[in-house]
Give the backbone structure.
Amino acid sequence: MILMQGKGVSKGVVKGPIYFYQRIQAAAAQTAASDIEEEKRRLEEAKEKSMDQLNALADKAREEAGDEAAMLFETHAMFVEDEDFVDCMNTVLDEEHCSAERAVEIAGEQFSAMLVAMDDAYMQARAADIKDVARRILNNLLGVTEGGIDSDEPVILAADDLAPSETLQLDKSKILGFITQGGSGNSHTAILARTMGIPAICGMGEALKPELNGRMAYIDGETGQAAIEPDEITLTAFQAKLEKQQEMKTLMETMKGQEDVTLDGRHMMVYCNIGSPEDVAAVHNNDGQGIGLFRSEFLYLAADDYPTEEEQFQAYKTVAAAMDGKRVVIRTLDIGADKQVGYFDLQKEENPALGVRAIRICLNRPEVFRTQLRALYRASAYGKVAIMFPMITSVWEVKECKRACQKVMAELDAEGIPYNRDTEVGIMIETPASVFVAEELAKEVDFFSVGTNDLTQYTLACDRQANDLGKFFDPHHPAVLRALKMATDAAHKAGIWIGICGELGADLTLLETFLAIGIDELSVSPSSVLPLRAEIRKSIAKTCTLEKLSC
């Protein structure tokens, strides 16, 4: 038996084989081929495999999130068989006498460039689809594993750590849990695990070795303990936890369809945090009332170039329509700091957490901001969309954001494009500055949402990504809770609602404090909805106190 200790970042116990993440190491395509007919045969096989993959993905998306979600994969499948694209690949093979891999690369570049050059905005938007299709065919030619996991059974995925772009491309159906050498409770691996409702442990260090690949393990995402091929005593303890976990899951099922209301009638909105359209299925499965944080940056992290207005519109529209009239709060682009995107060409900063990030990028790059706002407002015609601006520190920033919104609305009016003129606009409270000027900010917006991860980081001067700060990074610190109270008082004075979309929202030990403060909404990972509802329904709001705000 091997026992390892890390930091639990997503609760739960799971058993499965350890599997180390396979990073794509695509070799350069050959530039010449001796048998063109053989290359055409290989290309045909890769196309057929791509079609099978896309059809399977479309079926899965339709089952989990409806027809809108399946549309992207169906569009890609159409391109695989597109006569002009196929002719382009075969022509390259005949004329260049190159490998199938090289033909796909060249045809993908040529075909996407042709679409970009067209005057039609819809056809321009399809250029990114062609790039994705070409990449899929190329991966199948190279034998690259889609989603980084080449296993017939679900696994406990191990890695040094995973970049945001890597977590987005994982085949989530094959993941039982995560275990990483590095990372923190705020890493993207941890956030993904909580969204999926599966156990995760970070900070294992060098004890997590590639030699453990394939060995059977138990992991406990609450205690941070992992046991490789446990002895009888350890095995019994883990199995008891698994049984208790299943009992709790059965109990939580009884919470579905219940109201989020305290015993004395205080209602609390319980929403979900998501990172992509496919997460909507988890929202429905866990009976979330709405979406309080849709991290739109997934579109940018998963792309090789700036996502077009049409690409963004389709994603936002899919989520808005799938939520069937329930509020969907979409946060505008929030990259920088720990979320870097190569094609943005951001300058290297000594302290990126205090640098050009989030709304600062949007206001510095108005065309990027305009593209996203147009997509958001267009999507507002298909559901109850709300727009939220991150990293706000001053009133002038909010006014600039609202001015950008007004310009976009005027454009859509002139073009006759439908949108909801009454779309809510809100901001994230995640800096001490926004707390101190909250009364002035509240007069400009429809709602506040507190990002407790960053608010804790900036209030306590503690790096949220550091795994060794221990007790110094304390979201329960009275200063953080007092900041919540100040922001809540300012919001209610102005007649607007306030929620929490940071990880602290799911902390059941603080629920009574949130009720006493007056928080109106908690947005949490989908798996946290039912346990939170159970606690709300046995609480009495009028007896809750502010004692935790004292030192």
About this structure: The mean pLDDT is 90. The longest helix spans residues 36-65.
